[in-house]
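Hi everyone, sorry if this is the wrong subforum. Our group has a chain we'd like a structural model of before ordering constructs, and none of us has done structure prediction before. Sequence below.
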Amino acid sequence: MAHPSSAAVSSARICRVADRAARPAALVLCGVAALFFFLVLLPPARPFPYSDDWVYPRLLAAPAGELFAWFLAPNNDHFIPVMKVVQFGLLQAGGFDFRVLIALNAVLALAGALCFLAAAARYRGGSRVGDLVIPLLLLNPAFAAFGWGFAAQFVFSVAFSAIFLAAFVTSANLHSRRWLVIAFTALGLCALSGMNGLIVAGITALFLLVASFCTANAPLARATRWGSAMVLLLCLVVLWQWRPSGASISPLATSPERIGEWLYGIATSSFAVAAVLSAGWWRAVLVAVLVALAAILAARSSIRHIAARDMRLADAALHGIFFGHLVMLGAIVMGRAAQGGWGGGNEGHYGFLTVPLVISAWIIVSSRLPALPVAALGVGLVIAYGAAFLTGAEWRLGFVRSTAPHHAEIMEAFRSTAPSAEIVDRYPLDLFFIDNPDIRRQLTSDIDALRTTGSPLYTHRTR
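Answer:
Right subforum, don't worry. Here is the predicted structure as C-alpha coordinates:
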Protein backbone atom coordinates (compact mmCIF):
# COMPACT_ATOMS: atom_id res chain seq x y z
CA MET A 1 0.00 0.00 0.00
CA ALA A 2 1.46 3.37 -1.05
CA HIS A 3 1.88 6.01 1.61
CA PRO A 4 1.50 9.73 0.90
CA SER A 5 4.76 11.61 0.57
CA SER A 6 5.93 14.01 3.26
CA ALA A 7 5.41 16.89 0.85
CA ALA A 8 1.76 15.89 0.32
CA VAL A 9 1.24 15.54 4.06
CA SER A 10 2.78 18.97 4.67
CA SER A 11 0.65 20.54 1.96
CA ALA A 12 -2.50 19.01 3.40
CA ARG A 13 -1.56 20.28 6.87
CA ILE A 14 -1.00 23.79 5.52
CA CYS A 15 -4.38 23.69 3.78
CA ARG A 16 -6.11 22.69 7.01
CA VAL A 17 -4.43 25.49 8.97
CA ALA A 18 -5.29 28.03 6.27
CA ASP A 19 -8.89 26.84 6.15
CA ARG A 20 -9.27 27.15 9.93
CA ALA A 21 -7.94 30.72 9.76
CA ALA A 22 -10.20 31.63 6.84
CA ARG A 23 -13.38 32.41 8.78
CA PRO A 24 -11.86 34.74 11.40
CA ALA A 25 -9.78 36.40 8.69
CA ALA A 26 -12.90 36.95 6.56
CA LEU A 27 -14.77 38.46 9.53
CA VAL A 28 -11.84 40.79 10.25
CA LEU A 29 -11.84 41.80 6.58
CA CYS A 30 -15.58 42.55 6.79
CA GLY A 31 -14.98 44.74 9.83
CA VAL A 32 -12.07 46.63 8.30
CA ALA A 33 -13.98 47.22 5.04
CA ALA A 34 -17.04 48.45 6.96
CA LEU A 35 -14.97 50.84 9.11
CA PHE A 36 -13.18 52.17 6.04
CA PHE A 37 -16.48 52.85 4.33
CA PHE A 38 -18.38 54.42 7.22
CA LEU A 39 -15.49 56.45 8.65
CA VAL A 40 -13.61 57.46 5.50
CA LEU A 41 -15.75 57.12 2.37
CA LEU A 42 -19.29 57.97 3.54
CA PRO A 43 -18.82 61.39 5.26
CA PRO A 44 -17.56 63.20 2.12
CA ALA A 45 -20.01 61.41 -0.20
CA ARG A 46 -22.72 63.26 -2.13
CA PRO A 47 -25.59 64.20 0.25
CA PHE A 48 -28.05 65.39 -2.40
CA PRO A 49 -30.08 63.26 -4.88
CA TYR A 50 -28.71 62.02 -8.17
CA SER A 51 -30.60 60.66 -11.17
CA ASP A 52 -33.39 58.28 -10.06
CA ASP A 53 -33.05 59.52 -6.46
CA TRP A 54 -35.00 62.63 -7.47
CA VAL A 55 -38.23 60.67 -7.47
CA TYR A 56 -38.39 60.94 -3.66
CA PRO A 57 -38.63 64.74 -3.23
CA ARG A 58 -41.65 64.93 -5.51
CA LEU A 59 -43.49 62.52 -3.19
CA LEU A 60 -43.31 64.85 -0.20
CA ALA A 61 -46.62 66.53 -0.93
CA ALA A 62 -48.32 63.42 -2.30
CA PRO A 63 -51.52 62.29 -0.53
CA ALA A 64 -51.49 58.88 1.16
CA GLY A 65 -53.41 57.18 -1.66
CA GLU A 66 -51.05 58.46 -4.33
CA LEU A 67 -48.02 57.51 -2.24
CA PHE A 68 -49.34 53.97 -1.75
CA ALA A 69 -50.02 53.64 -5.48
CA TRP A 70 -46.46 54.77 -6.23
CA PHE A 71 -45.01 52.17 -3.88
CA LEU A 72 -46.78 49.47 -5.90
CA ALA A 73 -46.07 50.98 -9.32
CA PRO A 74 -43.15 49.54 -11.33
CA ASN A 75 -39.98 51.54 -11.86
CA ASN A 76 -39.29 50.96 -15.56
CA ASP A 77 -39.24 47.14 -15.71
CA HIS A 78 -38.76 46.61 -11.99
CA PHE A 79 -41.31 45.98 -9.24
CA ILE A 80 -39.47 47.22 -6.12
CA PRO A 81 -42.03 48.09 -3.41
CA VAL A 82 -39.85 46.98 -0.48
CA MET A 83 -36.96 49.16 -1.55
CA LYS A 84 -39.22 52.17 -2.12
CA VAL A 85 -40.87 51.93 1.30
CA VAL A 86 -37.58 51.44 3.15
CA GLN A 87 -35.74 54.21 1.30
CA PHE A 88 -38.55 56.77 1.62
CA GLY A 89 -38.86 56.05 5.35
CA LEU A 90 -35.10 56.40 5.88
CA LEU A 91 -34.97 59.67 3.95
CA GLN A 92 -37.74 61.18 6.04
CA ALA A 93 -36.02 60.06 9.24
CA GLY A 94 -32.64 61.33 8.00
CA GLY A 95 -33.71 64.79 6.81
CA PHE A 96 -33.35 63.79 3.15
CA ASP A 97 -29.61 63.35 3.47
CA PHE A 98 -29.18 60.86 0.64
CA ARG A 99 -26.06 59.42 2.25
CA VAL A 100 -28.44 57.36 4.42
CA LEU A 101 -29.36 55.40 1.29
CA ILE A 102 -25.71 54.74 0.50
CA ALA A 103 -25.22 53.65 4.11
CA LEU A 104 -28.17 51.27 3.74
CA ASN A 105 -26.55 49.78 0.64
CA ALA A 106 -23.34 49.20 2.59
CA VAL A 107 -25.21 47.55 5.47
CA LEU A 108 -27.03 45.23 3.06
CA ALA A 109 -23.78 44.37 1.25
CA LEU A 110 -22.15 43.59 4.61
CA ALA A 111 -25.13 41.42 5.58
CA GLY A 112 -24.83 39.64 2.24
CA ALA A 113 -21.14 38.95 2.82
CA LEU A 114 -21.76 37.56 6.31
CA CYS A 115 -24.61 35.38 5.06
CA PHE A 116 -22.67 33.98 2.12
CA LEU A 117 -19.76 33.22 4.49
CA ALA A 118 -22.14 31.38 6.81
CA ALA A 119 -23.81 29.54 3.93
CA ALA A 120 -20.46 28.39 2.51
CA ALA A 121 -19.19 27.10 5.86
CA ARG A 122 -22.43 25.34 6.79
CA TYR A 123 -22.91 23.85 3.34
CA ARG A 124 -19.43 22.27 3.29
CA GLY A 125 -19.09 21.74 7.03
CA GLY A 126 -16.16 24.14 7.21
CA SER A 127 -14.55 27.25 5.73
CA ARG A 128 -11.96 27.40 2.95
CA VAL A 129 -9.21 29.93 2.45
CA GLY A 130 -10.89 31.04 -0.76
CA ASP A 131 -13.91 32.23 1.25
CA LEU A 132 -11.97 35.44 1.76
CA VAL A 133 -13.06 36.28 -1.77
CA ILE A 134 -16.66 36.75 -0.52
CA PRO A 135 -16.10 40.06 1.35
CA LEU A 136 -13.55 41.15 -1.25
CA LEU A 137 -16.26 40.84 -3.89
CA LEU A 138 -19.31 42.18 -2.06
CA LEU A 139 -17.59 45.07 -0.27
CA ASN A 140 -15.57 46.45 -3.18
CA PRO A 141 -16.18 50.22 -2.81
CA ALA A 142 -15.95 50.81 -6.55
CA PHE A 143 -19.42 49.36 -7.15
CA ALA A 144 -22.10 52.00 -7.75
CA ALA A 145 -23.98 50.86 -4.65
CA PHE A 146 -21.33 52.54 -2.49
CA GLY A 147 -21.90 55.93 -4.09
CA TRP A 148 -25.52 56.04 -5.27
CA GLY A 149 -28.63 55.30 -3.25
CA PHE A 150 -30.88 53.99 -6.04
CA ALA A 151 -28.38 51.22 -6.82
CA ALA A 152 -30.12 49.50 -3.90
CA GLN A 153 -32.35 47.91 -6.53
CA PHE A 154 -29.48 45.48 -7.16
CA VAL A 155 -28.24 45.33 -3.57
CA PHE A 156 -31.62 44.22 -2.20
CA SER A 157 -31.84 41.21 -4.52
CA VAL A 158 -28.25 40.16 -3.80
CA ALA A 159 -28.65 40.55 -0.03
CA PHE A 160 -31.95 38.65 0.07
CA SER A 161 -30.51 35.80 -2.02
CA ALA A 162 -27.60 35.55 0.44
CA ILE A 163 -29.93 35.60 3.44
CA PHE A 164 -32.08 32.92 1.79
CA LEU A 165 -29.12 30.63 1.13
CA ALA A 166 -27.69 30.94 4.65
CA ALA A 167 -31.09 30.37 6.26
CA PHE A 168 -32.00 27.45 4.00
CA VAL A 169 -28.71 25.62 4.50
CA THR A 170 -29.07 26.16 8.27
CA SER A 171 -32.62 24.81 8.09
CA ALA A 172 -31.46 21.72 6.19
CA ASN A 173 -28.66 21.07 8.68
CA LEU A 174 -30.79 21.57 11.80
CA HIS A 175 -34.12 20.35 10.37
CA SER A 176 -35.53 23.68 11.57
CA ARG A 177 -38.87 25.00 10.32
CA ARG A 178 -38.09 28.42 11.83
CA TRP A 179 -35.03 28.84 9.60
CA LEU A 180 -37.05 27.54 6.66
CA VAL A 181 -39.65 30.28 7.18
CA ILE A 182 -36.84 32.87 7.28
CA ALA A 183 -35.37 31.40 4.09
CA PHE A 184 -38.58 31.54 2.06
CA THR A 185 -39.43 34.99 3.41
CA ALA A 186 -36.06 36.21 2.12
CA LEU A 187 -36.64 34.48 -1.23
CA GLY A 188 -40.05 36.15 -1.51
CA LEU A 189 -38.48 39.54 -0.78
CA CYS A 190 -35.88 38.78 -3.44
CA ALA A 191 -38.75 38.29 -5.91
CA LEU A 192 -39.99 41.78 -4.96
CA SER A 193 -36.58 43.35 -5.70
CA GLY A 194 -36.88 43.97 -9.41
CA MET A 195 -36.82 41.69 -12.44
CA ASN A 196 -33.29 40.59 -11.47
CA GLY A 197 -34.48 39.27 -8.13
CA LEU A 198 -37.63 37.85 -9.68
CA ILE A 199 -35.64 35.65 -12.07
CA VAL A 200 -33.31 34.44 -9.32
CA ALA A 201 -36.15 33.72 -6.89
CA GLY A 202 -38.28 31.99 -9.52
CA ILE A 203 -35.53 29.66 -10.73
CA THR A 204 -34.40 28.89 -7.16
CA ALA A 205 -37.96 28.08 -6.10
CA LEU A 206 -38.37 25.84 -9.16
CA PHE A 207 -35.18 23.93 -8.30
CA LEU A 208 -36.42 23.42 -4.74
CA LEU A 209 -39.88 22.36 -5.85
CA VAL A 210 -38.43 19.65 -8.09
CA ALA A 211 -35.97 18.57 -5.39
CA SER A 212 -38.74 18.28 -2.81
CA PHE A 213 -40.23 15.44 -4.89
CA CYS A 214 -36.85 13.76 -5.43
CA THR A 215 -35.44 13.57 -1.93
CA ALA A 216 -35.32 10.54 0.34
CA ASN A 217 -36.97 10.98 3.73
CA ALA A 218 -36.13 14.66 4.05
CA PRO A 219 -37.93 15.94 7.18
CA LEU A 220 -38.62 19.34 5.63
CA ALA A 221 -39.50 18.18 2.11
CA ARG A 222 -43.20 18.94 2.42
CA ALA A 223 -42.60 22.37 3.95
CA THR A 224 -40.05 23.10 1.22
CA ARG A 225 -42.62 22.09 -1.38
CA TRP A 226 -45.18 24.53 -0.01
CA GLY A 227 -42.66 27.33 0.44
CA SER A 228 -41.37 26.93 -3.13
CA ALA A 229 -44.92 26.89 -4.50
CA MET A 230 -45.77 30.10 -2.64
CA VAL A 231 -42.69 31.88 -3.99
CA LEU A 232 -43.46 30.68 -7.52
CA LEU A 233 -47.01 31.95 -7.15
CA LEU A 234 -45.68 35.34 -6.03
CA CYS A 235 -43.39 35.43 -9.06
CA LEU A 236 -46.30 34.66 -11.37
CA VAL A 237 -48.39 37.46 -9.81
CA VAL A 238 -45.58 39.96 -10.34
CA LEU A 239 -45.07 38.77 -13.91
CA TRP A 240 -48.82 39.00 -14.59
CA GLN A 241 -48.90 42.71 -13.72
CA TRP A 242 -45.64 43.46 -15.56
CA ARG A 243 -45.86 45.58 -18.69
CA PRO A 244 -42.85 46.13 -20.98
CA SER A 245 -41.44 49.64 -20.65
CA GLY A 246 -39.24 51.73 -22.89
CA ALA A 247 -36.27 49.89 -21.35
CA SER A 248 -37.53 46.61 -22.83
CA ILE A 249 -36.16 45.87 -26.27
CA SER A 250 -36.27 42.56 -28.08
CA PRO A 251 -32.95 40.70 -27.91
CA LEU A 252 -33.48 39.86 -31.59
CA ALA A 253 -32.78 43.52 -32.37
CA THR A 254 -29.04 43.24 -31.81
CA SER A 255 -25.99 41.69 -33.42
CA PRO A 256 -23.82 38.78 -32.25
CA GLU A 257 -20.86 41.16 -32.03
CA ARG A 258 -22.63 43.40 -29.54
CA ILE A 259 -23.80 40.41 -27.51
CA GLY A 260 -20.17 39.26 -27.37
CA GLU A 261 -19.14 42.72 -26.21
CA TRP A 262 -21.65 42.55 -23.37
CA LEU A 263 -20.67 39.00 -22.47
CA TYR A 264 -17.06 40.07 -22.08
CA GLY A 265 -18.09 43.14 -20.07
CA ILE A 266 -20.30 41.10 -17.73
CA ALA A 267 -17.60 38.43 -17.35
CA THR A 268 -15.06 40.99 -16.10
CA SER A 269 -17.38 43.33 -14.17
CA SER A 270 -17.12 41.44 -10.87
CA PHE A 271 -13.68 43.10 -10.68
CA ALA A 272 -15.43 46.51 -10.74
CA VAL A 273 -13.28 49.45 -11.81
CA ALA A 274 -10.12 47.32 -11.92
CA ALA A 275 -11.48 45.76 -15.12
CA VAL A 276 -11.35 49.21 -16.74
CA LEU A 277 -8.22 50.73 -15.23
CA SER A 278 -5.98 47.82 -16.23
CA ALA A 279 -6.35 45.56 -19.23
CA GLY A 280 -6.63 41.86 -18.59
CA TRP A 281 -8.48 39.32 -20.69
CA TRP A 282 -7.42 36.79 -18.06
CA ARG A 283 -10.20 38.09 -15.81
CA ALA A 284 -12.84 36.97 -18.29
CA VAL A 285 -11.11 33.60 -18.69
CA LEU A 286 -10.89 33.11 -14.91
CA VAL A 287 -14.58 33.84 -14.36
CA ALA A 288 -15.67 31.81 -17.42
CA VAL A 289 -13.67 28.75 -16.33
CA LEU A 290 -14.93 28.99 -12.73
CA VAL A 291 -18.56 29.36 -13.83
CA ALA A 292 -18.32 26.62 -16.48
CA LEU A 293 -16.74 24.20 -14.00
CA ALA A 294 -19.41 24.96 -11.40
CA ALA A 295 -22.17 24.52 -13.99
CA ILE A 296 -20.82 21.11 -15.03
CA LEU A 297 -20.40 19.91 -11.44
CA ALA A 298 -23.83 21.20 -10.37
CA ALA A 299 -25.62 19.78 -13.42
CA ARG A 300 -23.99 16.35 -13.08
CA SER A 301 -24.76 16.21 -9.37
CA SER A 302 -28.38 17.32 -9.81
CA ILE A 303 -29.10 14.87 -12.64
CA ARG A 304 -27.55 11.97 -10.75
CA HIS A 305 -29.35 12.65 -7.47
CA ILE A 306 -32.71 13.40 -9.09
CA ALA A 307 -32.50 10.09 -10.95
CA ALA A 308 -31.65 8.31 -7.69
CA ARG A 309 -34.34 10.30 -5.85
CA ASP A 310 -31.89 11.26 -3.09
CA MET A 311 -31.44 14.96 -3.88
CA ARG A 312 -30.12 17.08 -1.02
CA LEU A 313 -32.31 20.15 -0.55
CA ALA A 314 -29.27 22.26 0.33
CA ASP A 315 -27.77 21.31 -3.06
CA ALA A 316 -30.97 22.41 -4.80
CA ALA A 317 -30.91 25.77 -3.01
CA LEU A 318 -27.27 26.45 -3.93
CA HIS A 319 -27.73 25.28 -7.52
CA GLY A 320 -30.87 27.41 -7.82
CA ILE A 321 -29.01 30.53 -6.70
CA PHE A 322 -26.17 29.74 -9.12
CA PHE A 323 -28.27 28.99 -12.19
CA GLY A 324 -30.75 31.76 -11.29
CA HIS A 325 -28.01 34.37 -11.44
CA LEU A 326 -26.58 32.80 -14.59
CA VAL A 327 -29.93 33.07 -16.38
CA MET A 328 -30.56 36.57 -15.02
CA LEU A 329 -27.19 37.82 -16.29
CA GLY A 330 -27.88 36.19 -19.63
CA ALA A 331 -31.16 38.11 -19.81
CA ILE A 332 -29.31 41.35 -19.04
CA VAL A 333 -26.79 40.66 -21.80
CA MET A 334 -29.47 39.92 -24.39
CA GLY A 335 -31.74 42.82 -23.39
CA ARG A 336 -29.17 45.56 -22.83
CA ALA A 337 -27.07 44.66 -25.87
CA ALA A 338 -30.11 45.57 -27.96
CA GLN A 339 -29.99 49.08 -26.48
CA GLY A 340 -26.34 49.81 -27.20
CA GLY A 341 -22.75 48.78 -26.65
CA TRP A 342 -21.02 48.15 -23.35
CA GLY A 343 -19.96 51.49 -21.93
CA GLY A 344 -17.75 52.87 -19.20
CA GLY A 345 -19.45 52.69 -15.82
CA ASN A 346 -21.40 49.54 -16.62
CA GLU A 347 -18.89 47.49 -14.62
CA GLY A 348 -19.80 49.44 -11.49
CA HIS A 349 -23.53 49.32 -12.25
CA TYR A 350 -24.07 45.70 -13.35
CA GLY A 351 -20.98 44.25 -11.70
CA PHE A 352 -22.67 43.90 -8.33
CA LEU A 353 -25.20 41.51 -9.86
CA THR A 354 -22.40 39.22 -11.04
CA VAL A 355 -20.99 38.80 -7.53
CA PRO A 356 -23.42 36.06 -6.33
CA LEU A 357 -22.66 34.06 -9.48
CA VAL A 358 -18.93 34.06 -8.71
CA ILE A 359 -19.53 33.31 -5.01
CA SER A 360 -21.97 30.45 -5.62
CA ALA A 361 -19.66 29.02 -8.30
CA TRP A 362 -16.80 29.09 -5.79
CA ILE A 363 -18.90 27.31 -3.15
CA ILE A 364 -19.91 24.59 -5.62
CA VAL A 365 -16.38 24.00 -6.90
CA SER A 366 -14.75 24.15 -3.47
CA SER A 367 -17.14 21.56 -2.09
CA ARG A 368 -16.57 18.98 -4.84
CA LEU A 369 -12.89 19.09 -5.82
CA PRO A 370 -9.92 17.75 -3.80
CA ALA A 371 -8.38 19.95 -1.10
CA LEU A 372 -5.14 20.92 -2.84
CA PRO A 373 -6.69 22.14 -6.13
CA VAL A 374 -9.37 23.97 -4.11
CA ALA A 375 -6.70 25.68 -2.00
CA ALA A 376 -4.74 26.70 -5.10
CA LEU A 377 -7.87 28.05 -6.79
CA GLY A 378 -8.94 29.84 -3.61
CA VAL A 379 -5.57 31.55 -3.21
CA GLY A 380 -5.66 32.62 -6.85
CA LEU A 381 -9.14 34.09 -6.48
CA VAL A 382 -8.19 35.92 -3.28
CA ILE A 383 -5.12 37.45 -4.95
CA ALA A 384 -7.08 38.50 -8.05
CA TYR A 385 -10.07 39.95 -6.19
CA GLY A 386 -7.88 41.32 -3.40
CA ALA A 387 -6.04 43.42 -5.96
CA ALA A 388 -9.40 44.52 -7.43
CA PHE A 389 -10.64 45.47 -3.95
CA LEU A 390 -7.55 47.63 -3.29
CA THR A 391 -7.90 49.26 -6.70
CA GLY A 392 -11.59 49.92 -6.03
CA ALA A 393 -10.90 51.37 -2.57
CA GLU A 394 -8.22 53.67 -3.96
CA TRP A 395 -10.49 54.77 -6.81
CA ARG A 396 -13.49 55.47 -4.55
CA LEU A 397 -11.33 57.38 -2.06
CA GLY A 398 -9.89 59.51 -4.84
CA PHE A 399 -13.37 60.12 -6.25
CA VAL A 400 -14.99 61.28 -3.00
CA ARG A 401 -12.00 63.46 -2.11
CA SER A 402 -11.88 65.11 -5.52
CA THR A 403 -15.64 65.74 -5.74
CA ALA A 404 -16.29 66.72 -2.10
CA PRO A 405 -15.48 70.47 -2.60
CA HIS A 406 -17.73 70.62 -5.67
CA HIS A 407 -20.56 68.84 -3.87
CA ALA A 408 -20.17 71.24 -0.94
CA GLU A 409 -20.52 74.12 -3.42
CA ILE A 410 -23.75 72.61 -4.75
CA MET A 411 -25.10 72.20 -1.21
CA GLU A 412 -24.36 75.87 -0.54
CA ALA A 413 -26.34 76.70 -3.67
CA PHE A 414 -29.27 74.70 -2.32
CA ARG A 415 -29.13 76.71 0.91
CA SER A 416 -28.80 80.02 -0.89
CA THR A 417 -31.58 82.28 -2.15
CA ALA A 418 -30.75 81.42 -5.77
CA PRO A 419 -33.80 80.23 -7.74
CA SER A 420 -33.99 76.48 -8.24
CA ALA A 421 -33.94 76.90 -12.02
CA GLU A 422 -30.63 78.73 -11.75
CA ILE A 423 -29.12 75.89 -9.71
CA VAL A 424 -30.26 73.36 -12.30
CA ASP A 425 -28.80 75.43 -15.14
CA ARG A 426 -25.50 75.69 -13.26
CA TYR A 427 -25.13 72.02 -12.29
CA PRO A 428 -27.30 69.91 -14.63
CA LEU A 429 -25.08 66.84 -14.96
CA ASP A 430 -24.24 66.84 -11.26
CA LEU A 431 -27.93 66.23 -10.59
CA PHE A 432 -28.88 63.85 -13.41
CA PHE A 433 -26.91 61.77 -15.90
CA ILE A 434 -28.99 63.14 -18.81
CA ASP A 435 -29.55 66.79 -19.65
CA ASN A 436 -32.55 68.07 -21.61
CA PRO A 437 -35.24 70.76 -21.11
CA ASP A 438 -37.83 68.35 -19.70
CA ILE A 439 -35.42 66.98 -17.10
CA ARG A 440 -34.36 70.52 -16.14
CA ARG A 441 -37.99 71.50 -15.55
CA GLN A 442 -38.57 68.40 -13.43
CA LEU A 443 -35.38 68.98 -11.43
CA THR A 444 -36.41 72.58 -10.76
CA SER A 445 -39.71 71.36 -9.33
CA ASP A 446 -37.95 68.68 -7.28
CA ILE A 447 -35.48 71.16 -5.77
CA ASP A 448 -38.40 73.41 -4.81
CA ALA A 449 -39.93 70.41 -3.03
CA LEU A 450 -36.66 69.65 -1.23
CA ARG A 451 -36.37 73.23 -0.04
CA THR A 452 -39.77 72.97 1.64
CA THR A 453 -38.80 69.93 3.74
CA GLY A 454 -37.32 72.11 6.46
CA SER A 455 -34.17 70.00 6.51
CA PRO A 456 -31.06 72.04 7.42
CA LEU A 457 -29.38 70.54 4.36
CA TYR A 458 -31.60 72.48 1.96
CA THR A 459 -32.97 75.40 4.00
CA HIS A 460 -31.63 78.93 3.53
CA ARG A 461 -29.50 80.03 6.45
CA THR A 462 -29.39 83.66 7.48
CA ARG A 463 -26.04 84.92 8.66
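For your construct planning: The chain has a mean pLDDT of 90. The longest helix spans residues 371-415.
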